[in-house]
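note to self — DONT lose this again. spent like an hour looking for the file last time. sequence + predicted structure for the chain T wanted, 644 res
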Amino acid sequence: MAAAKSFYSVVQLLPHTLRGLHRLGGVRLASTVKLQESNDSIEHIEQVPLHQAQQSRLEQLRYTLKHDANGPVLMDTFNRKHTYLRISLTEKCNLRCTYCMPEEGIELTPTDSLLTTEEILKLAQLFVKEGVTKIRLTGGEPLVRRDIAEIIGELNKLKSSDPNIPGLESIGITTNGTTLKRKLPLLKEGGLDSINVSLDTLNPVRFELITRRRGWQRVMDGIMDAIDIGIPTVKINCVVMNGMNEDEICDFVELTKDVPVDVRFIEYMPFDGNKWNENKMVSYQSMLKTIQSQFPIIHRLEDDPNHTSKGYRVDGHAGKFGFITSMSDHFCGTCNRVRITADGNLKVCLFGNSEVSLRDEIRSQKSDEELLEVIGAAVKRKKKQHADFFRASSNFVKFQCVIYLMRQSFMESSNSPQSNIDVMSFVHVATMSEDVNDNYLLCPTANHSFYAQQQRSFTAPLHHQTSRTFTAQIRNYSTGRNARYNQLTHVDGTGKASMVDVSAKEVTTRQAVAVGKVHLNDVAFHAVKKNLVKKGDVLSVAKIAGIMGAKQCSRLIPLCHDIALSKIALDLILNENDNTVEIKASVATNDRTGVEMEALTGVSIAALTVYDMCKALGKDNWISDIKLLRKTGGASGDYDVTDA
């Protein structure tokens, strides 16, 4: 009998799986299973009209949610029990992080469409009764809410003083930390157990560049005060991105030496509007390798079953670090999270598009039992895992289409007498969308031999290839030993843009130094010297911008190559004799081609940054004398401007 009842529950929960549609006498029928309760066998399969089966599905689901001990409201069809609820308290944020939000902000949902405090607490109580033990308050920036301390205090009442009675166990908050310091005492008094601070840099100047706001010191003060005041768990969430902050990974790990904080490096994830592309993402394997190069003795920690972070600790350090690997190694199989947005929508998966409005259900005076039916149905629809990260990026999907078209063109024409393939039309079509990843649209040649040479990069299934593979196979390099000085090296025999393959060259140490000047009027020069420019510290910001520019050279200059740089040094000096900012960039690598363009790009970006920050102080500032000063290494020999 027990087996029959268990099977009955499955049938009721998944009506589609046992329904066979056919027509008998003009009536569409559905096959349903009828169990004889008096014994353990199935008596027979009964045919019922489909419209009756459809009408009864809601009743079937209600019965299952209410009576099936093996199917709690917050357990999905993959036996994942959801005990962690994240509630967004607001859409507002007091920062404008470049990877998250446009500088002008976003259009906010009208206030009357957002959950009220009473509705938030009602839903929290409902979820806790169904088994939620952990609630995290998020945003936007949750600390912009004036009643944040009161909300935490009310949530604290959902905790149970008796360990034998289920209840809420942890209240956390995720914040950017800019107003944390002054609100900490009330948050601690209200019952806050955990604080996650979003902080992507330990450099105050870079913080301002990333967030478009000042406040780095306030964030650091808030973190330290949270530890001192006795908040049980304090974490730092750091989103790591190529070209932005990947050079600070070891600095964050060094912070854990004396500070008992948990630093969590997060792989850059795609969200609507953040213009995600795979080149910005740094995988946790790459981050771990970087850390191991400076901290050879690290220990892998034991993670809790539902933890999203892979934890590590450097030998002798007070704190620890970890990786949230949503992209390279997802943790969907142990996911126990559901989310409620600020406007009251229930999301069972961060990457999913499916949402259910609990706000509308509450405001239509639905009972708690009816709310649970809606929640349970949404949880039961949760997929096994989110889409793989390449498919999550619309940019990459568009790129796949371009490559597919080029591949098909190559394959079709390989049997024809035509020796050249013009793929520029495909590239043109792709560039019609501003979101397409430019790295993959700058295909260097339409020559048939190029595609014959590169055929291996198109033969494997596209979804199995990584961005690193494409970058290495599609890109070629620059100069060669036998290049004639009176001939352009970046065009092919037909006159179309191309890149010279130097894969046969030896890997050697190569260096380059470039210089440039920014001429300032008296007012601007004085403001820069005294650090009075309203936009901030001009020389510091320009230095960071120049370094970042040198690292992004291959993404800015179409026919440049993508190589690993071992050194970038950028200096800015004020020359009072002629009111100029003198800029010098020194770049080095161990590779098959030089770094002249990286040095020149670094100087150019630094000079443009100085100009931009000072343009409000006069129209008579200008940039001059950007040039390569010297280079060493490589087949073409050393070069010095004094010898030119």
